[in-house]
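User: My instructor asked us to take a sequence, write out its structure as tokens, and then describe one feature of it. I'm not sure where to start. Here is the sequence I was given:
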Amino acid sequence: MDPLLIARWQFGITTVYHFLLVPLTIGLGPVVLFLHWRWVRTGDDRWYRATRFWGKLYLINFIMGVATGIVQEFQFGLAWSEYSRFVGDVFGAPLAMESLLAFFAESTFLGLWIFGWGRLPKPLHLATLAAAIAGSVASAYFILAANSWMQHPVGIRLEHGRPVMTDVWAVLTNNTAELAFAHTITGSLAVAGSFLLGIAWYQLWQRRRDGIDAVGADGRVVVGEDPSIPGRDRLDHRVWITSLRVGAAVAVVAFAAVAITGDAQGKLMFVQQPMKMAAAEAACHTGTSFSIITIGDPGSTDCSGIVYELEVPGVLSFLAKGDFTTPVKGVDELLPQYEAKYGTTLPDRAIYGARAGERIDYVPIMPVTYWGFRIMIGFGALAAFAAAVALWLTRKGTVPASKRLMQLAVLGILAPFGANAAGWIFTEMGRQPFVVAPNPTPGGVDGVYMFTAAAVSPGVSAGELLTSLVLLGLVYLVLLVVEVLLLTRFVRGGTASAVPELAEAHPDEEDAARRDDVLAFAY
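Assistant: Let's start with the prediction itself. The structure tokens for your sequence are:
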């Protein structure tokens, strides 16, 4: 067993799972803030109920995100100690800012928001949520700044073979970080929009299925209520139709912004990581054509056996340079350049162990980068189209009675999650064989790069890594089940599950005491 391979699988699995939670937390926060602001401004109970319901789901996801993110910090020291030794001087600043400033503020103000219902003045209570969300956004930026340095090292000098930070501002304003942040935030809002859309669609469909709402002769909704079901009144309908249309609108706008920021990232990638661009398009030869469908050996890491089934001339040049004529270097032209600059084999150093002298493959696993790029774009476009259709279908105040459409709307929640995960995998796998990619741009410091083969902890055995991989996988599986069960429970319960006063029209003393307990909202 290869310790490096097991360590990469371990970090990949835990990171992708954690990143499934992060976009929903980042994206859902501003939406809940908007709902809360509307309640403070208007006093309309529709916004109050929506804030409490979506706020509860936001908190569940936030807690799970924190639990799964802690593991990442430990892996840097346990499985990737050589990597931590190499990047530690640079990563110390942004990660300290993330922990001491952003996360501390985020957690503190979120606690004030949870326990502040009915205790803090409404404007101040709203401000605590705004501060918590600002902390989340700042936390995301600092982490992305650290990750972007791995993609494009800046603001450092080499001392004894290690990068030493000389300009923290250059690290924090890295153009790679700025675009990654914009793309991540807009992608997170797209996730939140689809999340609202799918759940609200299910709730409106359930009202129609139960005969609470109907459709009149003019096709418009006839809103009803069922006193026997807690919270199923006329106001409940307004909560869900508002949530659905807010979610769909957020999704449409966010996906448009995702396309714009993604295009800018592609042009930057063409300059900073040309091999990643070539692998993303399976572009073996220099040219201008964009491949829509390519067939080849699923396990291939080079151009052998690749067949181009469908290409569009000029589109690849547009993605890379903004015109339709500039040739984009292919793998066959880039590979000799990489080998001439960085070598053909791993250096004969103790840090590489038995891998010293192995041939370096500068071409990422092409099926992963190629299809990861297309899954990211395809799922994003599908979710954007679904959000636009949802706005049209619900223009008369409710959703169609079709169960199949409801199931598609709920499944549609997964599309932007899939797009985010595919994009993250593409970004990280496309950088291989470097864990810190070299900076080929003017002004870049020569020699600041690190092969992934040198990053793993030398004192950790394959058996230890495999044991931790299995155990962490089981723990994360349990956490996944817990999160899905919690979300499903509260979604099925509707607003009554998040607004205790709706549970009973005339609560007894025990119910009143439970309702007054702020933990009833938090948990």
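For the description part of your assignment, you could build on this observation: Confidence is low (pLDDT under 50) at residues 505-523. Try explaining in your own words what that tells you about the chain.
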